[in-house]
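Weekly puzzle thread! Below is a chain. First person to post its structure in token form gets bragging rights.
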Amino acid sequence: MFYSKSLQRFISVAATIVLVWVGIVPGSGQITAVHAQTINNRIVLEQPITSSYNGHELDQSLDKVVTREPVKPSNDWYEIDQHLVNAVRNAYNSSENYAITELEDWQNELMQKVDDKFLNWYFSYDNQKLMEFGVPFAWIVFKLDSSLKLFRTEEERNLTAGEIVKERMTQDFNNKFHELVLNEDSEKSFKRIVERIGRAYASAMSIQFLTIKSQYKINDPDWK
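Winning reply:
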């Protein structure tokens, strides 16, 4: 059915918007480490050193290299970065699964409204009779109004009588669909889903990051 397919497309787009809206996007690159390690491994003494011993000048040009042991970092930040990337991906995956479940439940509620309210209205006796007698009458009116254009909107001035009737019926169906299915209650329910997904993602990220911080025993200044 037309509305069922439209609702499926709407749910698919809605899932994407939710994930974008709360910023749930998987990390695809490396997280730049917060520490840049600068280690001076070599000190080159190139300036001549002049000294005196028992009245004699000693002019020695030292061109030798003094080497010291490199300072070993307390943590392997590259390895930590890899864990952070994986943490972002894990949080995204878990939040995505949670979002799909929530949106599927929301979709089921909408489909229940379609069956119980919208279809009952559409196949009701009054609506069927209205379409049976009203559509031909409306077509005749717009056909006679093709020259005067008294009953047409600005957008309908160049349309045929059949096209106008089709546009008016589609608009009426959409208005009724939003009244019975995608109404204010459905919008509020959708907003609550967005908030729950956002909290779930933030919680998953927090737990994963705190686990890494504890595992590597990183102090607060370095972690910041």
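Puzzle host: Confirmed. Bonus trivia for everyone else. The longest helix spans residues 77-122.
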